[in-house]
Amino acid sequence: MPTTRYLALLRGVNVGGKSPVKMPDLVRALSADELCDVTTYIQSGNVLFSSESSDTTGLESAIQACIDRTFSLDVAVAVMSAAEWQAVVAEAPPGWGQRPDSRHNLIVMLGGASPSEVVAALPPLKRDIDSMAVGRRVVYQSNTLAGRGRSAFSKIVMTPIYKQVTIRNSNTTLKLAALLQS
């Protein structure tokens, strides 16, 4: 059976000293849990792996169970195939990740959350500061560096939807796409 390359995004791992997980230990645990070619990128829970399974929901559950069993952590996981991640990057709005005067983030849905729920949970965008676009399982967010403290996006951490997403900046998003191609 052919294998597919995947990306797993773990929510809240190694952020602010909470939910510490050493990446070599995570690689060993997931490799023992029948995932192949497991690697990580930086310390914030980006896992690349191969699997014969095409069931991303099942893979999410298996990874969550492995992390709970090995590290005693309840961590939400989003799994996308390499092709899905490449499509997310290709479908980014013009200028996303390319304007040095702005910060660019990719908000990835976990579980049953929808991009429209994320957008609805935020206060109105400030046209001179914020921009957002809805994609498949993601929201592309940008705000000017000069206006970052006034950005509607800065309010997401105070909303219930925040626990149903994981966020990666554009540099990480693009690096993961490159790693999935190699």
What are the main properties of this structure?
182 residues; alpha+beta; Alpha-Beta Plaits; 4-stranded antiparallel β-sheet; 5 helices; 8 strands; 30% helix
Biggest sheet record: 4 strands, antiparallel
| Contiguous helical run count | 5
CATH homology group of the largest domain: bacterial protein sp0830 like
- Multimeric status of the protein: single chain
Low-confidence spans: pLDDT under 50, at least 5 residues? none
3D architecture notes:
This protein has 182 residues and is α+β, with helices and mostly antiparallel strands. It has helices spanning 23-32, 56-71, 82-90, 115-121, 170-181; strands spanning 4-10, 36-41, 46-51, 77-81, 102-109, 130-134, 138-144, 165-169. The chain folds into 2 domains: 4-83, Alpha-Beta Plaits, CATH 3.30.70; 91-181, Alpha-Beta Plaits. The protein has 5 helices and 8 strands, in the order E-H-E-E-H-E-H-E-H-E-E-E-H. Strands 2-3-1-4 form a 4-stranded antiparallel beta sheet, sandwiched between helices. The longest helix is centred in the middle third of the chain and has 16 residues, at 56-71. It is globular.
